Amino acid sequence: MTTVGILGGGQLARMLALAGAPLGLRFLVMDQAADACAAQFVPMLKADYTDEAALAEFASRVDVVTFDFENVPAQSAQWLAGKVPVFPSPRALAVAQDRLAEKSLFNDLGIATPRFSAVASRPDLDRALSEIGAPCILKTRRLGYDGKGQFRLASSDDADAAWEALGGQAETVGLILEGFVAFQRELSVVAVRARDGSFRAWPLTQNWHAKGILSASLAPADASPALIDQALSHARAVADELDYVGVFALELFERDGELLANEMAPRVHNSGHWTIEGAECSQFENHLRAVLGLPLGSCDARGRACMLNWVGELPDARAALAVAGVHWHDYGKSPREGRKVGHATAVAENARGLESQLIALGQALGREKQVSGVVAALG
Ligand code: ATP
Ligand code: MG
Ligand code: MG
Which fold has domain 115-179? Predict the structure, then answer.
């Protein structure tokens, strides 16, 4: 009996456990929150990620450790790696946790990014602003997610307000100023690399955000073979350089046919949730296969899929399930503004079928606006 330890007990851990059950796997999650949603059906060790006694107990009860949450302190991951195999490696985690380190790595590998500069102080913000120009975004280097820890500057007049909002974090988590990219669309590569270095990627996914939070994903995205090749080779270069093991996502902006890398997520990713029903092997199953040293499954799509995120509260499941081809995921979380509480995935044989499903789903749930971008992209 193999037990997989997961640091973080949110919906990603929950979906990993769901994918692992048919493989005969057991799970143990570690989380700081008593109400972590994976704990509804997975044993949980509730403890601080820096609590050494808890980490020792966790390590003693599992065969391998992986992450649902990328902001686990790198020292804790490193400490665990001395006791039990940890995938992805603490080094990969450390790079992906830090926007400055990940963007520098991308540039070193010849992958274009938005312009960026580390910001250490208020005068340094002025220096970075003159270097990068407005519009731009001040972001925390670490700990940000779902657009949190970001301040958009329309012009240099916003520097004081930006510093007011985030300056207090310059010394704790660090800050980075990034040029604002007027992209045509957002894409992501969700890929998996095995312990033996073999690499597979799911078809390119197109993403829509609302208020900095992922709202919809469409896969496979419509893209030229050249663009797909470029996106996949970027993902592979990053994975090989980090000797990465497991699933990760590379978020990209497409601007005038060029790809700029925004960030990488060292874990299964929201833009890969469509793979549960829309691909031969899901990101969750392939992540488990990778960290356990099992052969990888096929990343081929089964037709065309669209995932819609439910943020804040769940719409009416019954109305959604009445639309053929729609699959429902309720994370068992209590509703709260800005919180991801579930998602739905529509899968069809082709674009036309998916388009009609999405129009029906949008109407059934009163979510016409949320599906509109995807419907337009399919049209
Ligand atoms: P995630 O939940 O994806 O981890 P995050 O908090 O790490 O989000 P980002 O991915 O950096 O934040 O930003 C969230 C969204 O804000 C992006 O998907 C994009 O829509 C927008 N955004 C971020 N950086 C830029 C940029 N430099 N130019 C234009 N838009 C941007
Ligand atoms: Mg992020
Ligand atoms: Mg992001």
Answer: Dna Ligase; domain 1 (3.30.1490)
Neighbouring residues of the ion ligand 3, judged by CB less than 5 Å = 251
Pick the CATH number of 3-86 from 3.30.450.20, 3.30.420.40, 3.20.20.80, 3.40.50.20: 3.40.50.20
Let me know if domain 185-378 sits in CATH 2.40.30.10.
no
Question: Residue 251 C-alpha to ligand 3 middle, in angstroms?
Answer: 6
Whole-number Å distance, alpha carbon 70 to ligand 2 midpoint, is: 9
- Segment 229-253 shows an average pLDDT of 98
Give the nearest ligand 1 atom to 207 CA: 18
pLDDT tens digits for 348-379? 999 999 999 999 999 999 999 999 999 999 98
Confidence of residue 109 (pLDDT cuts 50, 70, 90): very high
Mean pLDDT score, 286-303:
98
Q: Is the CB of 280 under 6 A from ligand 1?
A: no
Q: Is residue 85 reached through a cis peptide bond, with omega within 30 degrees of 0 on the bond before it?
A: no
- Annotated binding-site residue? 243: no
pLDDT digits (tens, 9 = 90+) for 190-206: 999 999 999 999 999 99
